[in-house]
């Protein structure tokens, strides 16, 4: 039904005031909702631009192709995060019960000191899904999945197969055709709610229409836009209430770091501008370009950088044909092979420092946790340095020394970083290695910290497994 969405109450600030992640969360939400929302033409309304007409026109076309690209280039707490993402999609919704489409995704970048890449394709034909991985780095992200063995090979599954797998987890909803069709219906309703929300909050300010070129046989108008901060805050709060069910909203209120304050902080530090191009007769959405910049002046983490977003829609109303792969592997076959491998290797022999099979997988998982916790400690130390005029905690020495656990009665011979956890300003607790206390000193965390003559800080994991040497210096 067409009724305006209820805007959720402001989410209380329940995490420490100085936490840098509040602004980061706010920045990400603004980027996804305000920029990504452009794909649904959520741009308010001017005398020349009627977004409701755009929505009706786009949906009535039933078929179209779209190219998306996004470049996220930011520095957060001195750590570079760069993501270059692109996606091409083909959609045919003439028959809502039998959707047809294709998607190709490419993502490359750098985060937490590591480079990564992900390239994949997916085809949807009625109730059958085909997917293939063309590139995956680091491969450990897939745990026991042998990427090289299945690289560039199509893997097929159906909604019924997914339902059978999902039925093994009674805590999750049953995933079947009816479930996905309900999602489609809900998506259409949520989209209508978004349109009404934009209409009431006006998150963007629009300039006057300017005549553009001819696209797909019709003239176009171009509209410049900029961020309306007050309207954007209302839009984001209302959009969260539309996207998430009440039970998820409750979890978000309890766990997201300073969401409300973070959004306010992020909005004060960003600028947003761009252009939308729409058909003069059909009001079809053809092109969106936007740039969001953050100067980081009032954000504790010093987050600064640029997010660019581009979307091009084309081939409206042209029938879609999706070629079904002639050769493919059934997903269930792969799952059976993985299960068999686990059984065969369950009592594997020791080969040097590592064990083949499940033991190795546990080691990989623990190493992944260590990498994350090293960055958590390093980020907190760096933020302390920023807030204290470039001065490091005096307890950090030239010699690598194990960090003392939070609340320990005795930190003798260990590095006491309690200034980071005092009043939960930078951390609630110092992370502890997953093999502690057995593999750590008494009252220790299993993580070492030191500084160089030039005041560069190194945090390392003394219990890294599988022969990996794990340390990060900043």
Question: How would you explain this protein's 3D organization?
Answer:
By secondary structure, the protein is of the alpha+beta class. 31% of the residues lie in helices and 30% in strands. Strands 1, 2, 3, 4, 5, 6, 7, 8, 9, 10, 11, 12 and 13 form a 13-stranded mixed β-sheet that branches. Helix 1 packs across helix 8 (259-268). The longest helix is centred in the C-terminal third of the chain and has 30 residues, at 358-387. The protein is globular. The termini are far apart. Mean pLDDT is 74; it is low at 1-25, 32-48, 169-177 and 343-357.
Distinct helical segment count: 11
Q: Number of domains in the coordinates?
A: 2
The best one-word shape is: globular
Give the distance, in angstroms, between the N- and C-terminal Cα atoms. Answer: 54 Å
Write the layout of secondary structure elements.
Layout: H1 21-35, H2 51-61, E1 63-76, E2 79-92, E3 100-111, E4 114-125, E5 128-137, H3 147-150, E6 155-158, H4 159-166, H5 177-201, E7 204-206, E8 210-215, E9 218-227, H6 229-243, H7 246-255, H8 259-268, E10 270-279, E11 285-294, E12 304-314, E13 329-330, H9 331-344, E14 350-351, E15 354-355, H10 358-387, E16 401-404, H11 418-421, E17 444-451, E18 457-461, E19 471-473
Parallel strand pairs: 6-13
Antiparallel strand pairs: 1-2, 1-12, 2-3, 3-4, 4-5, 5-6, 7-9, 8-9, 9-10, 10-11, 11-12, 14-15, 16-17, 17-18, 18-19
Helix pairs in contact: 1-8, 5-6
Briefly characterize the structure:
This protein has eleven helices and 19 strands. The protein has 474 residues and is of the alpha+beta class. The strands form three sheets. Strands 1, 2, 3, 4, 5, 6, 7, 8, 9, 10, 11, 12 and 13 form a 13-stranded mixed sheet that branches.
């Amino acid at each position: 039904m067409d009724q305006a969405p209820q805007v959720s109450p402001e989410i209380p600030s329940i995490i420490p005031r100085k936490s840098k992640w509040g602004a980061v969360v706010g920045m990400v939400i603004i980027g996804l909702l305000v920029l990504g929302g452009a794909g649904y033409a959520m741009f308010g309304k001017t005398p020349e631009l009627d977004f409701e007409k755009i929505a009706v026109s786009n949906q009535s076309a039933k078929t179209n192709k779209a190219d998306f690209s996004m470049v996220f280039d930011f520095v957060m707490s001195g750590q570079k995060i760069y993501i270059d993402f692109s996606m091409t999609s083909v959609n045919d919704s003439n028959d809502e019960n039998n959707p047809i489409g294709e998607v190709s995704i490419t993502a490359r970048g750098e985060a937490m000191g590591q480079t990564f890449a992900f390239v994949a394709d997916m085809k949807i034909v009625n109730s059958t899904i085909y997917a293939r991985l063309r590139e995956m780095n680091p491969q450990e992200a897939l745990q026991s999945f042998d990427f090289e063995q299945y690289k560039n090979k199509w893997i097929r599954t159906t909604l019924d197969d997914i339902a059978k797998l999902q039925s093994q987890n009674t805590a999750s909803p049953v995933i079947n055709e009816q479930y996905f069709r309900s999602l489609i219906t809900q998506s259409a309703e949520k989209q209508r709610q978004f349109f009404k929300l934009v209409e009431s909050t006006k998150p963007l300010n629009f300039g006057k229409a300017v005549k553009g070129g001819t696209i797909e046989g019709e003239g176009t108008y171009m509209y410049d836009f900029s961020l309306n901060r007050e309207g954007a805050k209302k839009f984001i709060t209302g959009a969260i209430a539309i996207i998430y069910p009440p039970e998820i909203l409750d979890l978000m209120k309890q766990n997201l770091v300073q969401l409300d304050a973070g959004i306010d902080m992020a909005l004060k530090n960003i600028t947003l501008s761009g252009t939308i191009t729409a058909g003069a007769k059909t009001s079809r959405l053809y092109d969106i370009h936007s740039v969001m910049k953050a100067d980081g002046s009032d954000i504790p983490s010093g987050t600064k950088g640029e997010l660019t977003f581009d979307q091009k829609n084309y081939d409206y109303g042209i029938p879609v044909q999706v070629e079904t792969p002639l050769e493919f592997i059934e997903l269930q076959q792969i799952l059976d092979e993985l299960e068999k491998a686990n059984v065969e290797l369950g009592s594997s022999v020791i080969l040097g420092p590592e064990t083949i099979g499940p033991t190795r997988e546990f080691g990989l998982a623990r190493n992944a946790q260590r990498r994350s916790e090293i960055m958590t400690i390093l980020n907190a130390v760096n933020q302390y340095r920023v807030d204290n005029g470039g001065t490091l905690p005096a307890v950090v020495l030239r010699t690598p020394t194990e960090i003392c656990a939070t609340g320990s009665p005795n930190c003798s011979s260990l590095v006491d970083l309690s200034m980071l956890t005092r009043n939960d300003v930078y951390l609630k607790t110092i992370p502890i290695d997953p093999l502690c206390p057995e593999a750590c000193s008494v009252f220790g965390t299993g993580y070492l910290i030191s500084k160089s003559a030039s005041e560069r800080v190194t945090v390392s994991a003394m219990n890294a497994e599988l022969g990996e040497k794990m340390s990060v210096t900043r």
